[in-house]
Amino acid sequence: MSYLFDLETVRQRQEDLLSEARERRIARALRNARRGVEGSRRGVRRELEDVGRGLAEEPTVAVSCYRP
Description:
Blueprint: H1 2-57, H2 59-65
């Protein structure tokens, strides 16, 4: 009888470990996806800031934006 109980305990432990591993994989994938989105957003913001600063330095744009 104790032999069957031991097998059931081992099976339950194995299922628990597999479930935990699955949860960790999902959490890791979500973290990586969030980092990817945040990284791409940061890149866009930096590019827009650089373009905005660069436009003020362009003489044609600076003159066309100036209204007395």
